[in-house]
Amino acid sequence: MKDIPSKACAVDAVLFDFGGVLAEEGFANGLRAIALKNGKAPDEFMRIGHELVHKTGFVTGRATEHDYWEAIRKKTGIRDDDRTLRTEILSRFILRPFMLDAVRYLRETGILVAILSDQTSWLDELNDRYDFFRFFDYVFNSYHMGRSKKDPAHFGEVLAAMGLEGEQVLLIDDRKENCDTARAAGLHAIQYENREFFYRDMTLFCPAFGRPGFAGRREGL
């Protein structure tokens, strides 16, 4: 890896996934809860839920939320209405204060910060509740852009929108396949596993994350 320059970080922008990084993974946790309430095998139900959010086109804005839940009901036999199902999902997206503190630090030091999410129309609704878009320079939502992180071209569009090259940008995502696709597109990537490893891995790009007491000083801003 190239030497860390004098600026705060070795990259000019950091892209944050939403569910599983900035917030608890509400989609997967919600699908699991729905499965258990309906007597379904959680792992299989989650697989179907993840598959259909892409297959229906909901994630890229080509289908409505109702279309998605109808496909779920048809495939699995569950009978809950849309409102009940969406509540199980949205209630489990709980923002992580320490991640928002990291976002604030990066932005204060001149690093561009952005959300890069496949969270459908739900991302806008969650922002209406919690008002977190204001912490970011850009919000890239697959629902509005018509491409998901499964598509390598999506990363090219994001880079073009920011006016940056891949080597200037770091993605933080909890899914290995998204990190792999980003790296293939020329970006750096960190697969988020937990808070401790996040700080450890960030020191490779932003040395301040490794300083004693860094996390404690940032929290509560």
Helix and strand element order: EHHHHHEHEHHEHEHH
- Oligomerization: single chain
Q: Which residue ranges are poorly predicted, with pLDDT under 50 across at least 5 consecutive positions?
A: 1-6
Number of strands: 5
Topology:
Layout: E1 13-16, H1 26-37, H2 42-55, H3 65-76, H4 82-90, H5 97-108, E2 112-117, H6 122-130, E3 138-141, H7 142-145, H8 152-162, E4 169-173, H9 176-184, E5 188-191, H10 195-202, H11 214-218
Parallel strand pairs: 1-2, 1-4, 2-3, 4-5
Structural description of this entry:
The protein is an alpha/beta fold. It contains 11 helices and 5 strands. The protein has a 5-stranded parallel sheet with strand order 3-2-1-4-5, sandwiched between helices. β4, α9 and β5 form a beta-alpha-beta unit. The relative contact order is 0.17. Residues 1-6 have low confidence and may be disordered.
In short:
This protein has 11 helices and 5 strands, in the order E-H-H-H-H-H-E-H-E-H-H-E-H-E-H-H. With 221 residues, the chain is α/β, with parallel strands linked by helices. Residues 1-6 have low confidence and may be disordered.
Which terms summarize this structure?
5-stranded parallel β-sheet, Rossmann fold, alpha/beta, globular, 10% strand, disordered N terminus, 11 helices, 221 residues
